[in-house]
Amino acid sequence: MKLLVQIPQGYEPERRYILDVLLGEFLGLDFEVLPYDDRMVRIIGGDGKECQIVDGLFSCAEADWLTPRSLPASRLKWWDSSALPFSPKQVDSMVPVIYGDDPKSPGFFKHSPTSLYLGIDVFGAAFFMLSQYEEIVKPDRDRHDRFLGEASLAYQEGFLDRPIIDEYVEILWECLRYLWPELRRREHSFRMLLSHDLDWPLEHAFMGPLRMLQRCAGDLVRRRDFTGPFRRIWGWSRVKLGNTASDPCNNFAALMAWDEQHGVHSAFNFIAAHTMREFDPLYELGHPWIRSLMREIHHRGHEIGLHTSYNTYCDPAQVRREFEMLRHQCEAEGIRQAAWGGRQHYLRWKVPMTLQNWNDAGLDYDSSLTFADRAGFRCGVCREFPGFNVTTRHRLHIRERPLVVMECSVIDLDYMGLGLGAEAFEEMAKLKACCKMFGGDFTLLWHNSRLLLQEELQLYQEVLAC
Known about the structure:
It is built from 14 helices and 17 strands. It is an alpha/beta fold. The protein has two domains: 2-179, no CATH class; 191-201 and 249-465, Glycoside hydrolase/deacetylase (TIM Barrel, Alpha-Beta Barrel). A nine-stranded mixed beta sheet has the order 14-15-13-12-11-10-9-17-16. Helix 1 (12-26) crosses helix 2 (122-130).
């Protein structure tokens, strides 16, 4: 069955984009779009039945677009969806209404055999989350110029740990199926997508004496590890004498074997250049050991990815240069891939510039979008989607593959501070379970340099196995 979607006037590029993503890509439905002069979205079947959906975000005045006046209310209203005449997949029956009607109103949800009205602005809320709309409007940034998770609507309203837009889509699907039981949707299968950013492919080989002393000071001051400096200096000396096999970060053979045991071929993201010495790794792509590592990763069927350096997030020319450097080195090693992706170093991100830079450089996907300080569903979904530039109002060819968990976000005291025990496992397992529920992607970043302790290795393996 082909559906007709009638949309109100205004914001047509934004509306068509989000309809294509939700109805076309996520649900796999056949539909056509027709602008009309009314104040709600209508989805109409050939039999005359129709599903009406409130229009929220896209009903705002043009003068209010990308201003605080267009943001959701500071305290969201929550809807108890347990009384629905059907049972959509949900993390919880209490659903936040990002944009839409007052759920206490008797007209919030109405249905009859031929029509249905839903007071959640599914399409506007999805655009808000997928495009990171609020990050353009809100000024909150940390010392690395990153938008703070704690400043996000999702965290403040308590749904960052839920793929809320996937839940909205499930509610919408059940509304459509209520009217048209013969409709069939696209089925999605759960995937575990692992990646490893190579900040420290070797701990000692590329480290000079000054950096070594700084790391020793960190052992003493931050980690209260009073034997660490002695172990570090001893290991550094051995590696500097040519024994790279003894470097604690040289765990790639074991890391690939662990991933392969779970049927996963991972992405290993390499730094190609250095734009900030204080924060960028010190290795060079042309180093013989790095070249050998790249060949081994490729030989075993894993993926080579780009880890753009610290100061690239607002620099399109530098992103392009670094991708060209990586491609050139891979070609020299006989490495060819059907798709290229990666992640920003330190997860530095500016909406919409950074994704546009990656798009223009020719990359196929990015996987940077999680909050450094909070794990969860920054984009509100657990599946990849095409990018959109909110400023130019154009859909991009690059795809965003949202990152659900970065291990240090959960573990480190600077962020969630859950350590290496049961609390950290429960948090990661909960997020993975959400991805399984919706047939989505559990995207997990785990640095090879964070698999040096037995507790780190045990936690990693438990998360893979759960």
